[in-house]
Design brief:
By secondary structure, this protein is mainly alpha-helical. Helix content is 74%, strand content 2%. The chain starts with a helix and ends in an 8-residue tail after the last helix.
Length: 322
């Protein structure tokens, strides 16, 4: 029990320090803030959600005491809560059969929470976090836009030698794309942290479940319907339009990740598979427009079932019965 509490304390302190690094003003602090959920996700996967909950509570109290109550509450809601919940879902499973005597056999007879549903939970959390950060600027669409215009105009004025007004086209462009960038970054950050936490747990031997087949990840069928509805409402104005843009963005990123899973599936059997996958990842990181192609691939798989057809065609023909 003492070791359990010590691990929770270390994880909470590490996450709190990474979050509090923003006060230093260094560029590396932006990376550390993005990785702040990682220690809590790791202990949730390796030592259980209770350990992550204790670590999150410790970190929240540390930040609240050092940086103020609002930042402490914000950390608890934006970092500790999602990290605990996603780590819990990653290890959530139910037995398919009882009475297995062998431990390995018993582990194989567990139905683990589908990775597609975990991805959908990440999209939901990214939507809530993005909407919450925007709503902190104002209670309606006009006040949010005005706050962003003032902030971006001030930033551009500090970066240049001239005074930038709030009606500057650059400010208008930044106000337009900010909800999209925030939603996409939240979605990507949560997904990356969960993958890193699971990978570290697997390497250290603390992942008490088989590594999931990520290439088979697929979103529930109703996700496509939700995307179409959100896309339609994104053309509306006001708060409805802002929330719809956020939902559309996170679901598009989710389908882009599904597109990566499709890419891993359809490249099976290629002689230079590692090279082609590495080239694809390099292109994705260097040219963000390629995410549109990945999203289209994920959407096409959801509609036409590319992976299912590919795997069915790769199966050997049935043996003759006579």
């Amino acid at each position: 029990m003492m070791v359990f509490g010590l691990i929770a304390l270390i994880a909470g302190a590490a996450s709190a320090l990474m979050f509090a690094s923003i006060v230093s003003g260094a560029l590396i602090s932006l990376v550390l803030i993005c990785l702040a959920p990682l220690p809590l996700m790791l202990v949730a996967i390796a030592w259980g959600p209770l350990c992550a909950a204790l670590g999150g509570l410790v970190a929240t109290l540390l930040i609240g005491g050092a940086l103020g109550l609002p930042l402490g509450v914000g950390y608890g809601l934006a970092i500790a809560g999602p990290a605990w919940w996603l780590g819990h879902l990653a290890m959530l499973g139910r037995p398919l059969a009882d009475g297995a005597s062998d431990s390995d056999a018993a582990r194989l007879q567990v139905e683990w929470y589908p990775t597609g549903r975990i991805l959908l939970w990440i999209a939901a959390l990214a939507t809530l976090l993005t909407a919450g950060s925007l709503f902190s600027l104002g209670s309606d669409a006009s006040s949010i836009n005005e706050a962003m215009r003032r902030g971006f105009a001030r930033v551009l004025s500090l970066m240049g030698e001239t005074n930038v007004t709030e009606n500057d086209p650059r400010v208008s462009l930044m106000v337009t794309i900010t909800p999209v960038l925030l939603a996409a970054s939240q979605m990507t950050t949560l997904t990356l942290n969960l993958w890193l936490a699971a990978k570290v747990a697997a390497v250290s031997g603390r992942l008490h479940r088989p590594w999931p087949d990520l290439s088979s990840t697929s979103l529930p069928p109703m996700t496509l319907v939700a995307l179409c509805i959100a896309l339609a409402f994104s053309f509306f104005g006001g708060m409805i339009g802002i929330v719809a843009v956020i939902v559309t963005t996170v679901l598009m990123v989710a389908y882009a990740l599904v597109g990566l899973a499709v890419l891993h599936t359809i490249t099976r059997g290629l002689a230079n598979r590692a090279f082609w996958l590495a080239a694809a990842y390099v292109i994705v990181f260097m040219f963000s427009v390629s995410l549109v192609l990945l999203t289209a691939l994920g959407l096409a798989d959801a509609v036409f079932g590319f992976r299912e057809r590919f795997l069915r065609n790769r199966q050997p023909p049935p043996l003759p019965t006579s």
